[in-house]
């Protein structure tokens, strides 16, 4: 009986150790892709020719994230500026020196269910992975 119990516990630990790095790599990849997309959008949006991040740019970003396996409808973007002006209008670009802030988020999507099975606390269903960036606008009218 003791041998069966040891075998079951060993098998459970072995499975957890084998599959644990897989979902951690998925999480790291998703965080990295979100941050890469935020950095790219800020680089383009804060350039001297733009000074904004509009809805079309965000849709293109969703398409690039979908290409790496993320659900585009689940990605949320929040664009703002440091002085309170709207930062998503091509008709009113942010002047040079104004901060352009972008936040992207994506749900965890049950990545931590295996942790929950063995008693490790996991993020709740409503929590999201976040990537944030801030860059000064270089647009000169």
Notes on the structure:
By secondary structure, this protein is an alpha+beta fold. Helices cover 44% and strands 17% of the residues. The chain has three helices and three strands. It has helices spanning 2-45, 55-67, 113-117, and strands spanning 76-81, 99-107, 128-136. Strands 1-2-3 form a three-stranded antiparallel sheet, with helices on one face. Helix 1 (2-45) packs antiparallel against helix 2 (55-67). The protein is elongated, with a radius of gyration of 21 Å.
Number of DSSP helices? Answer: 3
Radius of gyration: 21 Å
Helix content: 40-55%
Strand content: 15-25%
Shape: elongated
Task: Describe the secondary structure blueprint for this structure.
Elements: H1 2-45, H2 55-67, E1 76-81, E2 99-107, H3 113-117, E3 128-136
Antiparallel strand pairs: 1-2, 2-3
Helix pairs in contact: 1-2
Features:
alpha+beta; elongated; 3-stranded antiparallel β-sheet; 3 helices; 44% helix; 141 residues
Care to give the gist of this entry?
The protein contains three helices and three strands.
């Amino acid at each position: 009986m003791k041998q069966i119990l040891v075998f079951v516990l060993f098998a459970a630990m072995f499975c957890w150790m084998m599959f644990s790095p897989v979902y951690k790599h998925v999480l790291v990849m998703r965080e990295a892709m979100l941050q890469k997309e935020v950095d790219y959008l800020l680089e383009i949006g804060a350039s001297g020719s733009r000074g904004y991040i509009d809805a079309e740019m965000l849709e293109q970003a969703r398409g690039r994230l979908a290409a790496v396996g993320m659900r585009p409808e689940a990605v949320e973007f929040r664009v703002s500026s440091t002085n309170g002006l709207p930062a998503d209008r091509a008709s009113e670009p942010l002047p040079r020196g104004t901060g352009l802030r972008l936040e992207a988020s994506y749900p965890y999507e049950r990545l931590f269910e295996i942790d929950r099975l063995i008693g490790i606390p996991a993020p709740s269903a409503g929590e999201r992975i976040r990537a944030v960036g801030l860059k000064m606008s270089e647009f000169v009218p």
